[in-house]
Amino acid sequence: MTGTLTDHAEPDKINRIGLHFKPWFFKHVESYLKGDHSGVEFIPLRQYYHRHTRSIFWELQDIIPFGNNPVFRWLFGWMVPPKISLLKLTQGETIRRLYEQHHVVQDMLVPMKHLQAAITRFHQEINVYPLWLCPFLLPPGRGMVHPKGQQEELYVDIGAYGEPKVKHFEARASTRQLEKFVREVHGFQMLYADVYMDREEFWEMFDGQLYHKLRAEFGCMEAFPEVYDKICKSARH
User: Fold this and answer.
1) Cis link prior to 44 (omega < 30° from 0)?
2) Cα–Cα dist 208/195, whole Å
3) How far apart are CA 134 and CA 209, in angstroms?
4) InterPro entries under this entry (predicted)?
5) CA atoms of 221 and 184, how far apart (whole Å)
6) Cβ-based neighbour number of residue 103 at 10 Å
7) What residues have CB less than 8 Å from 133, skipping those under 6 apart?
8) N or C: which end of the chain has fewer CB within 10 A?
9) DSSP state of 12
10) Which of 186, 130, 177 minimizes the C-alpha distance to 158?
11) E-strand spans in 72-111?
């Protein structure tokens, strides 16, 4: 699937995918795969940017299983997506723990040269599909996230959002296996997600030299917690 910006569109091929009654975008794409055919569509730019917003990528199928039903979309599609902050506010501790043990939300950044091995490992450990694959150039630098060498390198963000299909899934153990693999290929974990690394493993993944130097230089050691203490589950248990 490729996209090209254009100022002109063929009227009969315009697909306003952002309208509330339209199929979820990932299901629309899936229909092309199942039908084994190709096509050309013209999508308004704002709606293209928000192509995964209505279905929260593909997470909404686990929250509202019938949400892509045409009748539901026509009558109630204008009500979705629900605000994530509202869902978190209204869920109890038991539901939160169940969600944590039976749901994955992770983004891992890995070098393109290790993409095949990474997808294989994701399949073995969690078996969640679809996967979000977003290539990007990572420039060299002195911060926490940079390639191993002094040249920019092509990385891929692998996003896994949904219910694991492997029988042996256990949130902490399975995530730690993914974290271990990502460290070995000099990749990085997005820190909004659940992180189970210990402090030593965390700073093996991320380059903390400049970070710790500046914290000491500007007197942050006593004033602010270290980034590890703010985001890692291991630091809170």
Assistant:
1) no
2) 17
3) 28
4) Diminuto-like (IPR040165)
5) 29
6) 16
7) 115, 156, 157, 158, 159
8) N
9) G
10) 130
11) 104-111
Q: 78 near 20, Cβ under 8 Å?
A: yes
φ, ψ of residue 204 in degrees (nearest 5)? -75, -35
Write out pLDDT tens, residues 111-164. 999 999 999 999 999 999 999 999 999 999 999 999 998 999 999 999 999 989
Which CA distances in Å does 64 have to 29, 81, 105, 115? Answer: 19, 10, 17, 32
Q: How far apart are CA 49 and CA 140, in angstroms?
A: 28
Single-letter amino acid code for the residue at 198: D
Contact predicate 182/176, CB 8 Å: no
Q: Tell me the pTM.
A: 0.82
| Residue position matching structure tokens 């749901």 | 103
Quote the tokens at residue 102.
Answer: 């039976």
Residue identified by tokens 């869902």 is 87
Nearest to 175 by CA among 190, 185, 186: 190
192-208 residue pLDDT tens = 999 999 999 999 999 99
Structure tokens at 77: 């599609």
Residues 6+ apart with CB under 8 A from 3: 48
**For 151, left (φ over 0), alpha (ψ -120 to 50), or beta?**
beta
Longest dimension (CA), the chain: 63
Phi, psi of 52 (to 5 degrees): -105, 5
Distance CA 65, CA 219 (A): 51
Encode pLDDT of 36-77 as tens digits: 999 999 999 999 999 999 988 888 888 888 999 999 999 999
